[in-house]
Amino acid sequence: MAEKIKKVVLAYSGGLDTSIILKWLKDTYDCEVVTFTADLGQGEELEPARKKAEMFGVKEIFIEDLREEFVRDYVFPMFRANALYEGVYLLGTAIARPLIAKRQIEIAHAVGADAVCHGATGKGNDQVRFELGYYALDPDIKVIAPWREWDLNSRTKLIDYAEKHQIPVEKDKRGEAPFSVDANLLHTSSEGKLLEDPWDESPEYVFNRTVSPEDAPDEPTYIEVEFKSGDAVAIDGVKMSPATILTKLNELGGANGIGRLDLLENRFVGMKSRGIYETPGGTILLTAHRGIESITLDGGAMHLKDELMPKYAELIYNGFWFSPEREMLQALIDKSQEHVSGFVRLKLYKGGVHLVGRKSPEESLYSMEHVTFEEDEVYDQRDAAGFIKLNALRLRLLNKRGKTRINPSYE
Predict the structure, then answer these.
(1) Which element (helix H / strand E) includes 100?
(2) Which of 82, 160, 213, 370 has the highest CB neighbour count under 10 A?
(3) DSSP labels, 380-397
(4) How far is it, in rounded angstroms, from Cα 11 to Cα 240?
């Protein structure tokens, strides 16, 4: 017997899976369904989702443009940390889930819903990310996860269910789908089916945001990115909003074959999975941000950030955006960015992002006087002798205790 649910807010894309979920919710729980569709820059027309929801008799339909909030309040704070999961992944899917979860809970409160629902499978990370977000924002909310409840555990069963209930099935979705795709303004993620064998190279048609590096222009593209307090604010002297900046960087990166990643990653639920990612704008932004930090951020602060970054990235990957430890780390990271302002010049060429210049007229910690190979009056090289002797003291004492590392055969 299904738990009694009065009204549920469904994260609804308008695709086959969530359309089936919409019908299944009504049949299984005999409840009112409210749909929520977020525009995070996935590049798809969202009005068809509204029409499908109306076709199913949904009375309360929410379709919201969240691109600016997504980049300003989620992507940019993450990039201040230079976050990379397992050293390479720019967390494009993971960073979108807390925003979707937040808006679902807000809508649930606004319409008086007692439950929320997502379409993530029981094998992946997204179920964890959505539900940790839900419970962090409303500990008493009821959560429905159809993939953990129903018996529609194959593409064939989904198609049969759809046809039985007159749910439109697009022709290219019949049979086994070649791979699944998730997209937003930061990245695209492709996985499953023909990509499951990690030995096989991904076919070129999997990529839809980037040209092949081999087909990219033979002449490099130079751009200048301006930063203010750790966030990009302009490209080539043109001030832009956060979402507009990322959109422009995506165009530049995609045209130059930048941001492709073939990753075999460790999911939070315990298994390894292979993902093919495209993050053209994010890849440029990461290089640019590290470039401006190199000239404005104190060395000790930079190294501490680098030590903390893997933990920060793991928290986001695992779905703990709303946790106190992530917020504590964010406060430290944001403090470090107060003087991270200036300009970087980048060369984009055939899949590569190359930092070729950086300057910060007001915040630079770089002193040419101190590092010059010519004569100077600001640094006494004799000071280094004492510095070295003090740092060597414990090593000399260890040696006197008989811990020599000299191979006797060389004596």
Answers:
(1) helix 97-111
(2) 82
(3) -TTHHHHHHHHHHHHHHH
(4) 30
Whether residues 192 and 267 share a domain: the answer is yes
CATH number at residue 350: 3.90.1260.10
197 phi, psi to nearest 5 deg: -85, 110
Cα–Cα distance for residue pair 302/386, rounded to 1 Å: 26
Nearest to 103 by CA among 76, 128, 74, 124: 74
Instruction: Give a yes or no: residue 355 inside a domain.
Output: yes
Continuous segment of H or E residues that includes residue 117: strand 115-117
CA proximity to 326, closest of 307, 311, 336, 337:
311
Are 269 and 401 within one domain? no
Report pLDDT digits (tens) over 322-371.
999 999 999 999 999 999 999 999 999 999 999 999 999 999 999 888 88
Cβ pair 67, 39 in contact under 8 A? yes
Res 173: pLDDT: 47
Tell me the average pLDDT across 71-95: 98
Q: What is the pLDDT of residues 102-145, one digit of tens each?
A: 999 999 999 999 999 999 999 999 999 999 999 999 999 999 99
What's the domain range around 283?
181-359
Residues with a catalytic annotation lie at 17, 97, 126, 180
Q: How far from 2 is each of 18, 22, 24, 32, 148, CA to CA, in Å? A: 19, 16, 12, 15, 13
